[in-house]
Fold this sequence. Notes:
Elements: H1 2-35, E1 78-83, E2 98-102, H2 112-122
Antiparallel strand pairs: 1-2
Amino acid sequence: MIKRMILMLVVVAAFLGALAAYKAHQVKGAMAQGAAFKPPPEAVTTTVAREEVWSSTVKSIGTATAVQGVNVSADQPGIVEKISFDSGAAVRRGTCWSVSTPARRRPSSPPPSRRATSRRSTSPA
């Protein structure tokens, strides 16, 4: 039984040794082929240079997005009476561009003091 085991180990070792020798031979051949490799010459095309006129503009269709912009919102309630710029115009920093009336000074409703005095004067004493 031990003789069979030793015989099997020797056969497996010989097989693995033969396989390793064959692969080493393949790797050595690939390395030699890689060292002898010369890349093919580059394909080059040529043309004659000549002067041409190019247009200074290009017609195209697209979308433009502003680099700088502003979102306008009211800090206080009120009515905007006047806007001092045109749509799309550039506005300099610090420029007053609108005039508004605060909500508490609307001309449509009289101040509370007038309402109180008018009630007193119309009521009988």
